[in-house]
Amino acid sequence: MTTLSTRTAALVCSLPAVCTLLVAVAAQAQGLSFIARRDFYTGQRPYSVVVGDFNGDGLEDLALANYYNVTVLLGNGDGSFQAPRNFAAGLGSLSAAVGDFNGDGVPDLAVANYYSHDVSVLLGNGDGSFQAPRNFRIGSGPASVAVGDFNGDGALDLAVTDFDINVVAVLLGDGHGSFQAPRFIGVGSSPYGVVVGDFNGDGVPDLVVTNVFSENVSVLLGNGDGSFQMARNFASGHGSYSVAVADFNGDGVPDLAVANTGYALEIGADNVALLLGNGDGSFQAPRYFQAGVRPFSVAVADFNGDGVPDLAVANAGTVFTVYLGTISVLLGNGDGTFHEGWEYEAGHYLSTVAVGDFDGDGALDLTVAIGSSVSVSVLLGNGSGRFQTAPNFPAGSFPWSVVAGDFNGDGALDLAVANGGSNDISLLLGNGNGKFQSARNLEAGASPMSVAVSDFNGDGLLDLAVANGGSNDVSVLLGNGDGSFQTARNFAAGASPMSVAVGDFNGDGLPDLAVANGGSNDVSVLLGNGDGSFQTARNFAAGTHPSSVAVGDFNGDGVLDVAVANFGVLLPLASGDVSVLLGNGDGSFQPARNLAGPGSHPWSVAVGDFNGDGIPDLAVANGRYSDTVSLFLGNGDGSFQPVRSLAVGNMPLFVAVGDINGDGWLDLAVANSLGVAVLLGNGDGSFQAALRFGAGNSPVSVAVGDFNRDGRQDIAVANQDSNNVSVLINNTRR
User: pLDDT confidence of 9, banded at 50, 70, 90?
Assistant: First the structure.
């Protein structure tokens, strides 16, 4: 089993509550899963997601219309998906639909391309791949596409909204994958969504189109020959983008659910409108139901198994981080009304939601395309109308750092969170079942950025050390053993402390502190006196804007060293590096050796033995532009091998180490802008592709520990913009 260096492990693991965070659990595990949202890489800016079985294995797959192409993710049947496969389409793909356009029994794709002014038809090969696109010119701005047989010839046709010229285009199919020139039918102002249904009960498919700026829906009754009657318009609300069809009041007549985003700076106009059908192609006045902020897409299914259609609504949120995109679930009452369901965080600018059973358990699941990112999210349902997401526990304002420890001696891990905005530490006492009590807030210095745990006064109780970026000091809070702490004592450090780590740097058996100072470009070392106080800081030069510090014995001399991630500066651009300062054993350090080649702007560094050679290695989260974690394997003499880069997702800010799947090898947990990436270690210094799980808004820090005492390693995530901590419970099958 892999370990940290012997000296580091001996120091930290002298406290059992901390040791549980570092020692790998013995249980073996296959795969990895958490009670949390799953995120899967797609391509650039996915706007639309559809479900189909594209390789004929009986499992549901996903196809996404991205800005530049189409991505297909083949399902594994357990809620996970294979690596993305990309296929060419047009430019600015906003919508996709599934149908068999050439009659070979294999699902094909139709994609509306806004900027190339066409529709791409990709014929499926039946193995999950698709032929080169056939492009059919539409007009000026195709936005959404729907499929139906509009002329009754048995061949599927297309209906495409054109956002720019206020029409819907109908393209009649020939049954061989080709389509006639479009026929244009006028609708309202800026049409976006389109759906097919029989709204007057004549057995002929009709169309409903949402009109964003005329605040209505257009109903086009089909004649059965591919032509349609003149549009009839019915009020729907402000900013109507998406529409879905179902019988919501049980009268046998199809009704409409419309997602209204509202307009910029407009309050209360973002909602879901329900228009009950009269059965003759007309609709009653809308009834409005609240969802999240700026509903953009709506899907219909029976999520709780009561035989009544429910709604899933993708709420885009705002372009800023104030309102995170969410998924609202509104459970139907069967009379055309809905009762309040649940809301789930899922990322910024959610664009489309779709429904399927992705893990084969008979309960419907949700998938949502995140238009501002490069991923699609999957929320597994349990059949009751609820979906698996990580629970969130409120902390203070602008949390920056989270650590775990048993602060009240009950054997259950607790959490301590450094809140940079409220200048305090939130203490969340664990119940031992993965749940936490309401936060108790402890005063610290100005702008706490980092928190570390140890026993600084030798009483056997856990204490806290906090790096305060705004007051240029470190706060030490001595624990009372019951979950309370004494008043903070402050010790001067350098300018703008960003990170604090614990180690015995002078070999006296007492814990000392190392502090990375972003403003003075150095590391402060504060030697402990063993009574909770510390000597005057000694400063050692590092790189430009140090943001993180970690401890290990990198040259095997039995003396602790430090590694520092140097963020660098943005203007003028200097991407930073990693400094290694070898310890002399008396609390002093040799001049820094800088490691070249990490990704852009390293923000966090962690230590572990990733290849099982007994030598500590480094993992570095690169916070800007490179979307990677850099791996430096140690040589045992204080030097490191050339960097290896691991893809982890957008803007990784923090990396933590633990044996998360219980196989005896160290893994990585990385906080990035949308969630947590977990990279399972192979034990030879290589890692498997990142598994992505959802958390709150703007994750910035992670801690690993067993929060429900089941022997599996769980993950706690500090979310900066939602001011809370997400706890991801490991439910991997043993």
Answer: very low
The pair phi, psi for residue 631, each rounded to 5°, is -115, 125
Query: Phi/psi of residue 289, each to 5°?
Result: -130, 135
Write out pLDDT tens, residues 91-102. Answer: 999 999 999 999
3-state percent helix, strand, coil for the chain, nearest multiple of 5: 0, 45, 50
Q: Is the pLDDT of residue 580 over 50?
A: yes
Residue 29: predicted pLDDT: 33
CB 404 within 8 A of CB 413: yes
Q: What is the pLDDT of residues 421-475, one digit of tens each?
A: 999 999 999 999 999 999 999 999 999 999 999 999 999 999 999 999 999 999 9
Question: How far is residue 291's CA from residue 325's CA, in Å, rounded to a whole number?
Answer: 11
d(CA 49, CA 401): 35
* Residue 259 pLDDT > 60: yes
Beta strand spans in 586-674 (E): 593-595, 602-608, 617-622, 628-632, 644-647, 654-658, 667-671
331: nearest Cα among 353, 361, 311: 311
Report the b/e string of 532-548 with b at 16+ CB within 10 A.
bebeebebbebbebbbb
Q: Element (H or E) spanning 274, and its range? A: strand 271-275
**3-class DSSP assignment, residue 343:** strand
Distance, in Å, from the CA atom of 574 to the CA atom of 592, rounded to the nearest integer, reads 18
Nearest to 659 by CA among 25, 156, 44: 25
CA distance 319 to 294: 11
Q: pTM of the entire structure?
A: 0.88
Q: Contact at 8 Å (CB) between 309 and 254?
A: no
Task: Determine the residue type at 469.
Answer: G
pLDDT digit string, tens, across residues 311-320: 999 988 765 4
**Mind giving me the DSSP string for 543-563?**
SSSEEEEEEE-SSSSSS-EEE
Do 156 and 171 contact (CB within 8 A), yes or no? no
- The alpha carbon of 130 is separated from its chain's Cα centroid by a whole number of angstroms, namely 29
**Average pLDDT along the chain:** 92
For position 12, what pLDDT does the model report? 32
Q: Output the CA–CA distances (angstroms, integers) from residue 297 to 210, 326, 349, 725, in the order listed.
A: 11, 11, 11, 28
- Report how far residue 197's alpha carbon sits from residue 210's, in angstroms, rounded to the nearest whole number: 14
CB 654 within 8 A of CB 646: no
